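Structure first, sequence second, as always.
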């Protein structure tokens, strides 16, 4: 089913968020933690809260991809 496919993609999205963020901050775990728990104006929430939903997870991933292209 379509829902099953989307659910299977969630771990891949989570790993992609981590890898993108890891790359952006040079692997600094303190910066990763800070970014995840600080309100982001573009996301209108903390990334940690956003990734609790499928839509929010995709939004965070899209945002990180956008930011990484800009750097």
């Amino acid at each position: 089913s379509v829902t099953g496919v989307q659910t299977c993609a969630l771990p891949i999205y989570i790993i992609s968020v981590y890898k993108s963020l890891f790359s952006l901050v040079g692997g600094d775990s303190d910066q990763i933690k800070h970014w995840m728990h600080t309100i982001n104006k573009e996301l209108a929430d903390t990334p940690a809260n956003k990734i609790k939903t499928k839509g929010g997870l995709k939004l965070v991933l899209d945002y990180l991809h956008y930011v990484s292209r800009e750097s």
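Margin note: The radius of gyration is 12 Å.
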